[in-house]
Amino acid sequence: MITSKQRAKLRSMANTLDTVMQIGKGGITESVVKQAEEAISNKELIKVRVLESALLSAREACEALCAEMNAEPVQCIGSRFVIFKRNEKKPVIDFDA
User: Fold this and answer.
1) Residue 81 φ/ψ, nearest 5 degrees
2) φ, ψ for residue 29 (rounded to 5)?
């Protein structure tokens, strides 16, 4: 669980992030989860876009993907959302700095 201060730092870091992946009308499939796991393992923080053709809203997709990956939702604005998952072996983001 991340604190509100940590969430604020992650939100500020997410402003400069590019969208790493998109979720389409197929929704949250095994391949989407696998792609997200690969992307988040190196960066710890990713931005995802939900296309208009998707059957899920951005908030629903964020909640479903976070539940599948055991990740933390950081922010959901419009059709994009940001999620965070700590890499226990090699942390990238330092909250103490």
Assistant:
1) -145, 160
2) -105, 175
Residue 90 DSSP symbol: S
The string of DSSP codes covering 26-85 is: T-S-HHHHHHHHHHHHHHSEEEEEE-TT-SS-HHHHHHHHHHHHT-EEEEEETTEEEEE-
Task: Report the chain's mean pLDDT, rounded to a whole number.
Answer: 92
Mapped onto helix, strand or coil, the DSSP state of residue 5 is helix
Q: 75-97: per-residue pLDDT in tens? A: 999 999 999 999 888 888 887 75
The Cα 85–Cα 2 span in angstroms is: 10
Strand, coil or helix: 13: helix
Question: Can you tell me which residue has the tokens 């939702």?
Answer: 73
Nearest to 61 by CA among 23, 35, 93, 91: 23
What spatial distance separates the first Cα and last Cα of the chain, rounded to whole Å? 19
Whole-prediction pTM value?
0.91
